[in-house]
Amino acid sequence: MRISPAIILLTCLGFPTGAGAQAVPRYSVEKLADGVHAVIYNSDIDVEGNTLIVINDEDVFVVDSNAGITTARATIAEVRKLTPKPVRYVVNTHWHDDHVFGNQAYADAYPGVEFIAHPLTRQDIVNHAFASNTFVLDLIEADIHRLEGYLKTGVYRDGKPVAGELEARIRNYLANRREAFADRRAFRPVVPTVDVADALTMKRGTREIQIRFLGRGNTRGDLVVYLPAERIVATGDLVVYPVPYATNVYATDWVKTLDALMALPAATVLPGHGPVMRDWTYVRRVKDTLESHLSAVRDAKKQSLSLTRTQEVVQLPEIRDSFVAGNEPRRAGYEAFFRPTLVRNAWEELDPAIMHAYETATTQPFADGVYTIDRRDGDGGITALLNPKDTVLVTSLAAAAPAWAAVRSLRELTDKPVKHIIVLGDVAAQKGALDVLKETYPKAEVLTGAGVISPDGRKIRIFSENESLAVEIPSERIRIERGGKAAKTR
Predict the structure, then answer these.
(1) What b/e readout covers 33-54, taking b as 16+ CB neighbours within 10 angstroms?
(2) How far apart are CA 472 and CA 1, in angstroms?
(3) Eight-class DSSP state of 456
(4) Does residue 461 form part of some domain?
(5) Which of 64, 358, 429, 454 has the most CB atoms around its CB within 10 Å?
(6) Position 205 in a domain
(7) Mean pLDDT to the nearest integer, 354-361
(8) Terminal Cα distance for the chain, rounded
């Protein structure tokens, strides 16, 4: 599952580190050059992306729009303190929630504003960030009930009494969750309107703004924004401080992309999260960390270690401790959203059979919420049924490598957890693929016989036909037969 770290980090790992009794500013505004300012959110309070504000001769150019309506409106208020000029462009550097859910506030405040993103980021905003809103609302609501329970009982989850600093942190975090819940209930999707697949140079009066795709890294559509005259670059989540994120990254490409980033003659670096940087020291450290993990995974592959075993073996505690610096929430974030997920993606990328299957597969939308992931050699496939809160897979894959490739492709399609795996054809013959799917989705129910399921109210009928199983979604007139091919019925 690949929901933005902004959501899962807060939902699963406890409280931000500085949300205590002492009042701490939620964000600061820092002048980087004439007409160029950064709104830097305090990562010790909540997980919010930084924003770059570029004031031009007649308009304003913004990089990243925050995690919700409330924080986006706060940033917009800062823009209005700086200038009466309208925001004309907003760049979404990548798809993560904390960089795109504020689009709605900008569209409301500045009618006609254009939103710029890589075309794959536009797809991911729709399929990942926005499509997961209902599921995430449930997570946040559960968080609210849990926090209210702590305050009501006076007992924290580890048995500690809720008092003093801990009580202040809980109340602060509860306010954060209530804000997020209200924002998401008022959510209206506003998607990018301008695609930048390679590069775009804009002349806004006397100012030059370069929007560049330097390569895949933290996501498959990372854009950076560079101001050549001011030597300022906004990196999005290619660079995150104090702990990098690697939820669904492109590990080998990320190293090359950071090299391309550091080739820019920038003197000021605004990361996706964290303080303004005046040199490349931290970026080099992130690159070195990626290379160290890739090297360790290569060694594990030489020993033919499984993914699970590789994740156990590749620890590199000295590197972890240098980022964590004794901070327990940072350690939890590192172990949830950096090390194991980086190792997983590197393990896949360094396997020629998996990458061949991945690169030769075709992922296509078939109907609303229905995608097919097919082998070009015709050797089976997977149909993914995306429901509001979960996913159902219908598989006829046999071998392990195509299954790993399909899992990788599925991560690019959706964040929603896999609830059911329906197996078409000979179960024994599909053992290699099934073992991969079971390892990846251990909570999913594997269905190998006839029956009816109704995930999220979507009725799916599984029935026997010609010594195999077939699947039908009657309300949508969709039928999936052995081989994983979806078709419309009359």
Answers:
(1) eebbbbbbbbbbbbbbbbbbbb
(2) 26
(3) G
(4) yes
(5) 64
(6) yes
(7) 92
(8) 35
Task: Name beta bridge partners: 268.
Answer: 232
Q: Which residue intervals of 303-395 are DSSP H helices?
A: 307-313, 317-324, 328-337, 339-349, 352-359
Q: What is 64-120 written as a DSSP string?
A: ---SSHHHHHHHHHHHHHH-SSPEEEEE--S--HHHHTTHHHHHHHSTT-EEEE-HH
Helix, strand, coil in percent for the chain, rounding step 5: 40, 25, 35
The token pair at 157 is 């989850």
Burial 395-421 (b: 16+ CB within 10 A, else e): bbbbbbbbbbbbbbbbbbbbbbebbbb
Looking at residue 3, its amino acid is I
Number of residues in the chain? 490
Last residue of a domain, one of 257, 292, 327: 292
* Stretch (H or E) spanning 8: helix 5-12
Let me know whether 344 and 426 are in one domain: no
Kindly state whether residues 466 and 411 are assigned to the same domain. Answer: yes
Q: How far, rounded to the nearest angstrom, does the alpha carbon of residue 143 sit from its chain's CA centroid?
A: 20
Burial class of residue 276 in the structure, from the number of CB atoms within 10 Å of its CB (0-12 exposed, 13-18 middle, 19+ buried): middle
DSSP class of 1 = -
Angle, helices 251-262 vs 339-349, to 10°: value is: 100
- The answer on 386 and 476 residing in a single domain is yes
Residue 282 above 90 pLDDT? yes
Task: Note whether 321 and 364 are same-domain residues.
Answer: no
For residue 232, give its domain range. 5-131+189-292
- Give 54-75 as a DSSP string: EE-SS-EEEE---SSHHHHHHH
Contact 6, 67 (CB under 8 A): yes
Number of domains comprising the chain: 3
Please say whether the beta carbons of 400 and 432 come within 8 A.
yes
CA 421 – CA 372 distance, rounded (Å) = 14
Q: Tell me the pLDDT tens digit for each residue of 26-78.
A: 899 999 999 999 999 987 667 899 999 999 999 999 999 999 999 999 999 99
List, for residues 73-102, the tens digit of each pLDDT value: 999 999 999 999 999 999 999 999 999 999
Angle at 21 between CA 15 and CA 22, to 5 degrees: 110
Q: Give the Å distances, CA to CA, from 66 to 49, 123, 137, 139, 458.
A: 6, 18, 17, 19, 33
Taking residues 315-331, report their average pLDDT. 94
pLDDT, tens digit, 9 for 90 and up, residues 224-264:
999 999 999 999 999 999 999 998 899 999 999 999 999 99
